[in-house]
User: What shape does this take?
Amino acid sequence: MQNFPNSPARPAGRLPSPGGPDRRSFLGLSLGAGAALVLSACGGESTESGSGAGGTLKWGWDLPTSWDPVTSSAGWDVHSLSLVYSGLTKLGPGGEAVPGLAESWKYNKEGTSVSFTLRKGLRFSDGSPLTAQEVKKSIERGRDDQKSLIASQLVGFEKVTAPDAHTVTVDLAAPDFQIPTLLAGKTGMVVDPKVFEKDPGSLATEPAGSGPYTLSSYVENSKAVLRRNSGYWDAKHTTVENFELYPRPEASTVVASLKSGQYNVAEIPGSQVKAARAAGLKVQVIPSMVIAVLDVHNKKEPYTDPDVVLALKHAIDREELLKTAAFGYGEVVRQPFPSGYVGHDPELEKLFPYDPAKARKLLAKAGYGEGDELELTLTTQEAEGASELIQAQLKKVGVKAKIETIPEARATQIVYVQRKKGLYLDKFAGRDSATQAFQVLFGKEGLMNPGRTTSPELEKALEVVRRTPLESDDYPRVLREATSAAVRRMPNVFLYTMPRILARNPSVSKIPEFSVVQRFEGVTVS
Amino acid sequence: MKTISRSWRLRSARLALAALAVVALCAALGGVLAPHDPLAQHPSDMLQGPSLQHPLGTDYLGRDVASRLLAGTGLSVAGALESVGAAMVIGALPGVASAWFGRALEWGALRAADTLMIMPFTVFAIAVVGALGNGMHQAMLALGLLFAPLYFRVTRAAALGLKQAQYVEAAELMGASRRWVLRVHVWGKVLPTVAVTTAQAIGQALLVVSSLTFLGLGVQPPAPTWGGMLASDLGYLAQQPWAPLIPGAAIMITVGALNILADAIRDSTGAGSGTAGAAGAASVSRAAAGTPKSPGSSASQPHAVRTGEVPADVPTA
Assistant: This one.
């Protein structure tokens, strides 16, 4: 199982610390643009409810940074974009690629070419036909457009051809068996060429896709209203007629908002679980691929010194962070994948135990001993909670950390595009494909790799991963080797997983549990 | 000082001053009085209720709330004082000057004051913080700029009245320099008005400062502030529904005391009340007991602003 959608990751560092998403969003609002999102459809479990769709699902979650998957700057956007776009593939509950717009695909033996066969009679939400030609153009735009933030994931797509109306063939520069999973997320969303050839700017607020819903109205930072798209290829599983998407709810008011009916499904922080249950709401803790992480810019002082970076890894008490900032929801990790995922190597959890004495020793070795303590700035979107804990933990090893907050709306730009910050507390949203996750976090052009450094050992390991078919018995082993190389060689300090905690009104049926993209197939609202 | 001793005769003033003395003490010595280190985290004791060791309980990181409240007083109050101090400098002197130094200056100063008065406090402060960086000084100077018209108008109104006072005209006829007149005859009379305005402006500024820190602007965590504590407490209502009342009470008591004090000073001096016709008549008798009132001050001035009026956009929560 691989997972996750493409492109940039959710930019933000806000940990689930209960203190105050709102204040942060307020700051963001004052300074910039907003975001949003939603989900998509897919054949999961549950009802065969046919076309008897009805009800309104009001999701308190987040709005996307853009409704254009090619320029959206947050990995998190995949949830909202999946509501209005669909791709050749999507991910099943186990993280494996399952048919989407393509009903099947076939690799050549070497893994250098893959042909997708499209379903018959596909249409964009506006009713115009969606054929291989449109898919080809859409992929090429993602790869070639100057403003594309997914281009780095498509560089291996040497040639995209559409030999007939229902076949798209991708020729790759090197063997890579991850393409079907790669295309399951933002990277593979098919955008209508009629629109981006004429007015690509309009996509930011008016998506042009072929997803389970169409956007009927959108107010930035406020609300997106969507309507079921009866022309969607899997419309029979779209069981909710009206969908409303809202920005991230405030921790202090989310339970009240759920009770009052402002939302009927919302993401809540760990601190609110008790209150939500007491209020008679149903709470689902869905394991996700999201991981809290400290991004380290290892081309900036003092992180150019590997001893300083290693000291950080030993100085952070991840258990305490998890217990206090996340109220114990999640698990401690020292790698970019949660346990249970094929790329997760349990052995790596033995690395970097919490050891302040060792951290002090490493810092002393790097020249930051007594009386000459290291001073650094911890950048975050949310000063309260995890950031304050990390600051106190660093103080215990003699590091003086200053907390600096930046608004959510500008975080990606400041940290990942301009690369102005040395240490940044963020969440990695996970990706549809394992190699894509590696690319984003550790690649030479990886968005979430502020130092843009990589390791030859890791590159080599990834090369092997790409040329190994996902069904192969060797796959788990080679993937873990890559994980191991990344965790040992790269500066990121992984902290803990962040499950998706969804509270819902009892009138909403159980939400399917997808680890990467939250979709709502089969969900009913009575 | 004279003003304060006169006000002391009012019971409400004594109460307000007592409350403010406690606040001032906490502001000056809060860190020393705090029973625990306000920044020391004890995650295993997070969100505890009141106990002997922690009289007001602990917060989401196990920090002692009582200590944070005490230590937060300084930052909260200093911010308010800074903005009001800035406002006084920017507003009061031009206010007096505009009555004496020619039409060009008067016209310019009035237009500038009009412009500043239409700005909403909190939003303006947020914009300044966004442009100049997230710091307390940036936010407070922005606030000071917006409070300045208050001082400008109040001092100008008082000065305009005094300008026509017979003893001022007499002094001028006897060859007193403008400087002498302003220093000896005008400034001393304007001061009570400034005192009322100040007491009340500090209260308003404290509310705005608390709003800003509530929004995460100005002071960065983990440094404690009343507004910041209030904001973080709201995230844990399920665990500690009473917690926001503590910083809320601190803000309310301080602002309330300042407003009561402002009222008391006005009542005991008549400052700021004699500039508008109707209100002036009502307070003349009270004022007569206190300061010698210049007869000219009852002349209605179109730009006079009563200090009791709160700018519409100052948060009241």
